[in-house]
Design a protein that fits this description.
single chain, alpha/beta, Rossmann fold, seven-stranded mixed sheet, 7 strands
């Protein structure tokens, strides 16, 4: 008899991905789909995705989705969660969306302690729109709008969103993870599962920051990009739990 080693999660649509080779969006979609399935939340979950590479998340994760205006996913998620507090609700946002045009939205959602989860994909650049410098672009990192590299005297330093939001009382749980290798991927899945579990307990806002690749706009191969996440990005954006009110309470 043949033995099934692996099969696609029922939380994923049976479609091919459109993402660039080496992009980590697809891996994160897989983890979210598996978590929602394992927690038996898939049929009731509402996801909110805004503008950017994340806009097509609803094509891959097999739950209901709402598309929000650029940066406004937290406002839409707030409305859904407040009118249907029994439903699992999450936003799926990139760094250009969340940390730039949507910065006020996410700050006030965290400050209010809105009871939804945000999955924040930090690839240190604007991906869909052509590789411009983002609020998370590293010092010295080149982009189409910082061709000599990000200069702290001109552009300031990159924003550490997990740390900034964790200063707000409404933040219940924040963790930064990556999916550049199997051990990191397993830790990321555990973090995502914890975020949704805490959300359903109603204790406050939960936030998972995922360090991700953008090989196309970084000008790297998929292998090089994965290594760069571990060797360089994680030095400025340290992996691990940033805030956990269950531990500190």
């Amino acid at each position: 008899m043949s033995q099934i080693v692996y099969k696609r999660s029922p939380g994923l649509q049976d479609v091919e991905t459109h993402y660039c080779p080496g992009c980590h969006h697809g891996i994160v979609h897989k983890l979210i789909a598996e978590v929602l399935t394992e927690l038996d939340l898939l049929d009731t979950t509402v996801g909110v995705c805004p503008v950017g590479c994340s806009v097509l998340a609803g094509n891959y994760i097999n739950c209901d989705f709402i598309e929000a205006a650029h940066g406004r996913a937290p406002a839409v998620a707030t409305g859904v969660k407040r009118t249907h507090p029994e439903l699992p609700v999450f936003t799926y946002q990139g760094d250009g969306d969340l940390a730039s045009i949507g910065a006020a939205e996410i700050v006030h959602a965290a400050m209010r302690g809105e009871r939804f989860t945000t999955i924040f994909i930090n690839n240190a650049i604007y991906g869909m729109t052509g590789g411009q410098m983002a609020p998370t672009t590293l010092e010295g990192q080149k982009s189409t709008t910082s061709q000599s590299g990000r200069d702290r005297n001109v552009h300031g330093l990159p924003v550490r969103m997990a740390e900034m939001l964790s200063t707000l009382d409404g933040m219940a749980y924040a963790e930064r993870v990556c999916v550049a290798d199997i051990p990191s991927l397993n830790k990321a899945k555990r973090a995502i599962k914890k975020a949704f579990t805490l959300q359903m307990k109603g204790i406050g806002f939960t936030f998972i920051e995922v360090l991700s690749t953008c090989p196309t706009n970084w000008g790297m191969s998929p292998v090089e990009a994965g290594k760069w996440v571990k060797s360089t990005m994680s030095q400025y954006y340290p992996l691990g739990i940033v805030k956990d009110t269950e531990v500190t309470a």
